[in-house]
Amino acid sequence: MVFTTQIFVFYFLPLFLLVYYNLPRGWRNVWITLASYVFYGWWEPWFSGLMLLTTVMDFVWGGVITRPGATQAQRKAAVLACVATNLGLLGFFKYYMFAAETLNQLLAAAGATQFAVMQVVLPVGISFYTFHSLTYIIDLYRGDATPAKSFSGFSAFVALFPDLVAGPIIRYKTLAEQLRERDHTVSRFSSGVSIFIAGFAKKIILANPCGKVADASFSAADPLALDAWVGVLAYTFQIYFDFCGYSDMAVGLGRMLGFEFTRNFDSPYRSESITELWRRWHISLSNVLRDYLYIALGGNRKGEGRTYFNLAVVMILGGLWHGAKWNFVLWGAFHGSLLAFERWRGKRSAYDRLPGPLRIGLTFLLMMLSWVLFRADNLGAAMDFYQAMFGLRPAGIVSPLLDSIIHTPYHVVILAACAALVFQPLQAHDWAERPVTWGKTAMLIPLFVFSLVVMVSQDFNPFLYFQF
Amino acid sequence: MNRARDPRWLLILIFLGIIGIVPLIQTALEIRDEEGVRAMEVFGQFPTAASLRAYERRLEEASWATKVTRPWIQFAHFAFLRDGGTKCAIGLDGWYFYKPSLNYMLERPVIRKTVDPLNDPFTAIADFRDQLAARGIQLVVMPVPNKESVYPDKVTPRMRNSGGVRTHRTQDLLRRLRTANVEVIDLFDHFQQLRKQPSAASEKPLYLAQDTHWSPAGVAHAAKIVSRRLMQLGWIQPGRVDYAERLAPVRRLGDVLRMLQAPLIERRVTPEAVPCVQVVRLDNGQPYAHAGDAEILVLGDSFMRIYQQDEPMSAGFISHLAKELKQPLMAVVNDGGGSTLVRQELRGTPALLRNKKVVLWEFVERDIGLGLHGWQKVALPPDSQRPSPPTASNSTGN
Fold it and tell me: Nearest to residue B255, comparing CAs of B396, B96, B104?
């Protein structure tokens, strides 16, 4: 189920809240779990079975790791087995086809016989809930968390529908206490409503129209340079407002249930360097990669060279986490290289002596260039698109027709609004966080109604981050 | 604090009120209309991805909120932001274009490692040609150019000086068909030539401004081109039925605008004056009618239907081709089904092939990529059935 659909907003959410707030506190986690399985199974019912299987498995492994009297070797074996199983499932569903097709290409290049590649359906959000579970297991092993006391609490943590399919990635230790005891206050609920509405509007009013422009531009055979740039600009805004909007909705829904989730975005496009940008973009993923991968690889404790290497490895794996394509590997390598370069310069960008607005502009430009890899269907298409952007590829004879699809007044207004919003200092999340006043209520309600009206009228409502 | 004076409570209550009231009104309306509560249908089916998607789609389509608000949003987008949604691209000088058709021209074709047996135009056409040849029937293929191909200058000022553009996808298919000796009548070249003649281009556009289809002028020109080619090939001899023309102007709100399903837009836009020319028999003054024993069978989509089966009737391509050839024809027409469905209909009525010398198969250019039900091979029943000749009422159309 997607937050920005009628089935969620008009049926699932009111019914869920109605039951939730009429249940005794002790039953609320059970209700969260049940409802979350319905929410997740809405895509494909067997996905819920897979999630239940991994949840049971991780709960049992957690018990083994923390079993009184367990030796260090036993604990280590248990955590390795658990991590291997989780990553094995993730690897099979997400990377099997990629690996098999790559192997086939190599076989073809060597003149050997290729084999049939089994078609594997990718369960949406598997990358997110696998990471949720892994944080539990690893934190238990490290002694950073205590084992879940009840299966209902643990399954509610894994399945928790607000952050299930697109994050923020929340560690068990962050939520453990809240799962046991959390406050349901008017202030928290109302601030949840505020943030939910802000995220909802970002997604519906801004991200979706940008997506139309980006789709038209990226699917065009040989776009003109201007149209290619407009396309990647639109995608740069789409992915931000789509993902940030969804994260805001997740945070808002969490608050309606009494939870406090970590914030996932902090004005990333106002960053003055790539290092800064990665502190502001998908913050929960950056934190997980830092704490569970970068530090595990040695972080910056093993010398300069190793630090750069670690940064590159983390970003390449981070890229691969987003999808099983060479595009994502290259995207990760691009960012890893930039991070390593800036680290070598003392966490300063190559353009840190320029005025602030130029630093922001150049960082934004680098991000735009990297999004081409993220959006293009494959590496070949990405290279074609780069060539189109820089006029290195002749535009197709029909390409000027793209003008009528992407350069409409509607899209110009939306792109201008996006630009104004991402570069101005007050972010919607911050604004929504502030105490609810009459004035704010008078703005939020019409915004919500308008967003709903647009939502029920839209016939284009993709969500980008499910594929990851 | 008094709840009534607390903005937090107000925000919460209104939020919950909005998300709660919409489904309650929906349910009340469905109970009033004795339709049964759609939301409850989810419990009456085994949950699969397909059934859940269908259920969700049904809910959205039946939603009163959608029905009430969508026309207004569509209108606002159209009138103030020049945005026609997923169906309509707003061109220049009051011209509107079908966006999927533009997408067909612009999009990078999907490169497949193997031929898709259910969606390969070349294979389907060549196979059909061979099946007809085995019955002694000639096939003529006539892809009707997209409106955007012929009038790119009406799409965007960037193409102001262009008299026509053709996408590589179409060119490739036509080249392959010709290499395989399939008889193809390419109207695009002819239309381009016609547009270069100032009077034809400026006074009588070959396509309607508000519609995806051709104009009466386009119809008449196409009929002349096809007739000339059939005569050249010697596959058909002129008949002995004389037809006359009768002016039958109509006003027509284009299908591109109707696809927006927004009455406010339909009210705002003036329907286009369409100077149709009806074809009538010279001997009795009756409008053109098909004949079951005709030598030519026309298969086609809505380009064959327009003016012919809808108002003013008998003024479409088929009537004009009959006039040029001096003989009635037979036709199977399926809106949007030029790629596969029309042949499937023919398979269901093989008697239509009796006495035929030529099958003229028309489809619109965009269907090369967007054909409804793809481009499947359709096996015709064995010729040995020798069915009895059909009557004119066998002619089908949607």
Answer: B96
